[in-house]
Design goal:
The protein contains one helix and 32 strands. The chain is mainly beta. It has a domain at 261-338: Thrombin, subunit H.
């Protein structure tokens, strides 16, 4: 009897969860209501970034982290001419293009400061605060790996003659793999080389930790990103490339764009999306979404003006200052509506039907109904 009751409870709970899931999956929302808002102070020339379910506000004078209630969790001041901010999960790094200081912080506050001693050209950060940086040294370019406290973990030199110019860099969330897009010229043509470096045990016996690479003739790839610890994606002017492997990344999938100009690239852990100007009856824009395996997930057409695209596990959110759209990964529109006030950025919360919207002077919590 006891076993029967336990099995019955499990079945009922499972049925309830399944019912809730399918109810949510098939739900179409008709409105988005502001359920709370909090004032924020606007810094001159400030920019905003989503930081999990928090918000980063940064400018030439400093950076701070706020929660959904508008509370400043931490604040760090600096002086930068061209601040660069990179985020990986719950870690953020801020540095100055052509400067030499990188500040690393988490949601709880500062983790450490890195002095590169050489001008910064680009950098990225892993989830535990490890930073990979491209540094300029006149005739040479250096790739450095630092921990969050500024200790150099590894470094190597690159030259135009040997490898080309490092155009873009990305580090895996666990800090073990680094991917670099190199641009070089040979035989009168432009080439791109996508190179991967392993800073774990597998790469210790490899020269400069180099473990794999792929060359693309006639392509320029200004975008490379690790989607997770085992998958990376690169985008050039004529294709999108996916690579897989926790130790030695190999080519997994590749899709040519057929000569169409790529107007934007968006990524999150599970997906990558390419934006094209469509200009047909289907819509002014076309968004081609790929999953982490490099397979096409969904193609969306839309007309509204927009600022950014959020790629969630099972949804795509397209938003501009005045309005927003939500689609599921089957291409079904789940919501279309206008904001009450012009929105700077939109980000998710821990609840599926709630979002944070940053306006000129407020953080608002929106609930879909």
């Amino acid at each position: 009897m006891i076993l029967y009751r336990a099995i019955l409870v499990i079945v009922l709970v499972g049925a309830g969860l399944a019912l809730a899931y399918f109810s949510w999956r098939d739900k179409v929302f008709s409105e988005a209501t502001i359920i709370k808002s909090a004032p924020i102070s606007e810094a001159s020339g400030a920019s905003f970034l989503a930081f999990g379910d928090h918000v980063i506000q940064y400018s030439k004078d400093g950076i701070r982290c706020m929660n959904g209630d508008g509370e400043v969790l931490w604040n760090e001041t600096y002086e930068m001419q061209s601040p660069i901010v990179r985020i990986c999960r719950n870690v953020v790094a801020a540095g100055d293009y052509n400067g030499h200081i990188i500040h690393v912080a988490g949601t709880a506050g500062a983790i450490g400061t890195i002095d590169t001693n050489l001008p910064i050209r680009d950098f990225c950060v892993a989830s535990q605060g490890v930073v990979a940086a491209i540094l300029d040294d006149q005739d040479n370019t250096w790739i450095y790996l630092y921990d969050a406290q500024g200790t150099a973990l590894a470094y190597f030199k690159t030259t135009m003659a040997d490898s080309g110019y490092p155009f873009a860099i990305s580090i895996s969330p666990n800090g073990q793999l680094v991917g670099i897009s190199f641009l070089y010229a040979r035989d009168g043509r432009i080439h791109t080389s996508i190179a991967f470096y392993n800073f774990g045990s597998v790469g210790q016996n490899a020269t400069d930790n180099y473990v794999s690479g792929y060359d693309y003739t006639g392509s320029v790839a200004p975008f490379i990103r690790f989607l997770n610890d085992e998958t990376a994606c690169a985008v050039s002017d004529d294709r999108v490339m996916f690579f897989a492997g926790a130790q030695i990344p190999t080519s997994r999938a590749e899709h040519l764009t057929g000569g169409e100009e790529i107007a934007g690239v968006y990524d999150q852990e599970d997906h990558v999306a390419l934006l094209f100007h469509n200009n047909t009856q289907e819509g002014a824009y076309r968004l081609q979404v790929y999953d982490a395996d490099g397979e096409p997930a969904v193609t969306l057409y839309f007309d509204q003006d927009f600022e950014d695209v959020l790629l969630l596990k099972d949804r795509v959110v397209i938003y501009g200052a005045k309005s927003w759209l939500i689609y599921d990964m089957n291409g079904n529109r789940k919501y279309a509506g206008a904001f009450e006030k012009p929105v700077r950025i939109l980000t998710t919360t821990s609840l599926r039907n709630r979002f944070l919207a940053v306006t000129e002077n407020e953080i608002c919590t929106l609930e879909l109904r």
